[in-house]
Design brief:
Helices cover 78% and strands 3% of the residues. A two-stranded antiparallel sheet has the order 1-2. The C terminus is likely disordered. It has a single domain, classed as Growth Hormone, Chain: A, CATH 1.20.1250. It is built from 17 helices and two strands. By secondary structure, the protein is mainly alpha-helical.
Length: 422
């Protein structure tokens, strides 16, 4: 558990750094004297790099192992957070967020690989949801701590002080993290090269389960990411007339909701794997319904109970997106898990980038009309649902691909492990 704890600790800090701009967006706009489109560029650039790094990171994990990749990620996102604290201009701040996104990109799928090495395969859905839950704790920490620190300490002290947490998890990774239990060294990876990379990516992409997982992640994740990462606080304060304290409380409620829903989804999928896509689609439909109610509410402001419902529903988006990894995992053998997870993880962040950009441009074009700007959410959701419905029968028809379970003999998932056909 120490190894697993260190890994998820790195992911937690990465999420704190990733979401810190979401509660500091208005402060960033004032500090750098920028409009909505320029403000959204921070998050778009960060997520663009994150998404673009997913397949390379997956290949790195398959070849180099989790420890090296996580250590490099911690180094990069710590440097990015510190640089953001000290940036005197908008340009240098952009570079810092890009560096942060590069390091952040190396965390989650590394933690997924760590879980697959240290826990038996039948617990994978629960372990994935627990990892995501820990990340949600990071979002909650960011929501509760960063605004108060900004108010009391100022910009530089807040972001520079938080970078100390990154240095701490880097040291813990170097001291305590191991790629796999002793005596269970995986077979050596083949020599790296263009042909190896091409084969890994092509083989993972050919599996309908991988593509289905990517579109599940694409469709389920982005509404919460867009809301928590950047536009939630401005929407609640500027469009709904809430105080910053009340808006921060709703964002925190969304994080608490995710923490409650994640383990439930993990248990359901562990017991009924066939319920994966139905659970994801149900979450997407509920999210769209509540968003439509908020945006279509007559009058200037939606009632507090409806905004509360929106934040509760958005909390389920993260756990629903993790289902995408559960679609891809049984479709790919262990030596291809990193690459397949990288493909899946691109989905939600591509959708988030698209929506972040659309909202920023529409806000500038309409004079900050949030109803029109946030309607772009429905367009992206419709695209994702259409792809899920198309791929779902194909993935089921393939039996989710070649499945190989790891049966643990001994306690704590550290005993002898034997791969058997599922």
């Amino acid at each position: 558990m120490l190894v697993w704890g260190v890994g998820v600790g790195v992911y937690l800090v990465a999420i704190v750094f990733r979401t810190s701009l979401g509660v500091a967006g208005l402060d960033a706009a004032d500090r750098f004297h920028i409009n909505a489109s320029a403000l959204s560029t921070f998050s778009i650039l960060q997520l663009l790099i994150y998404a673009g790094m997913q397949i390379p990171v997956g290949l790195m994990i398959d070849r180099l192992g989790t420890r090296r990749v996580l250590a490099l990620g911690a180094l990069l996102f710590t440097a990015g957070q510190l640089g953001f604290a000290l940036s005197p201009t908008y340009g240098t701040a952009l570079v810092s967020r890009a560096l942060l996104g590069c390091g952040d990109a190396m965390t989650f799928i590394s933690v997924l690989r760590l879980g697959s090495r240290w826990f038996p395969a039948h617990r994978a859905p629960v372990i994935s949801q627990v990892a995501a839950l820990i990340g949600t704790v990071g979002s909650l920490v960011s929501t509760l701590v960063i605004p108060r620190a900004l108010h009391g300490l100022g910009w530089t002290a807040t972001f520079a002080g938080s970078s100390v947490a990154g240095a701490l998890v880097l040291v813990l990774t170097l001291l305590f993290l191991k790629d796999h239990p002793e005596g269970h060294t995986p077979p050596p990876a083949p020599a790296a090269g263009v042909e190896y990379i091409r084969r890994q990516i092509a083989a993972a992409w050919r599996e309908p389960g991988t593509r289905l997982g990517m579109w599940v992640h694409f469709t389920a994740q982005f509404p919460a990411t867009v809301f928590m990462l950047l536009w939630g606080l401005p929407f609640l304060v500027q469009a709904q007339g809430l105080t910053r304290e009340a808006a921060g409380g709703l964002l925190a409620l969304s994080a608490v909701s995710a923490m409650a829903v994640g383990p439930v989804y993990g248990q359901v999928i562990s017991r009924r794997p066939a319920a994966r896509t139905a659970l994801a689609l149900g979450t997407v439909a509920t999210t769209a319904l509540v968003w439509a109610a908020v945006l279509g509410w007559p009058g200037a402001h939606a009632p507090m109970w409806l905004l509360t419902a929106l934040c509760l529903v958005l909390g389920a988006c993260g756990p629903a997106s993790v289902i995408g990894f559960d679609c891809a995992r049984p479709a790919n053998p262990p030596e291809r898990q990193g690459t397949a997870s990288g493909i899946v993880n691109m989905g939600g962040f591509i959708a988030s980038i698209t929506t972040l950009l659309a909202i920023g441009l529409l806000l500038d074009a309409t004079g900050d009309d949030y109803r029109i700007a946030f309607s772009s959410v429905f367009v992206v959701q419709a695209l994702g649902v259409s792809r899920i419905l198309r791929l779902r029968p194909r993935a089921a028809g393939r039996g989710d691909g070649p499945r190989r379970l790891i049966v643990a003999v001994g306690g704590g998932g550290r005993g002898d492990r034997v791969r058997v056909p599922a």
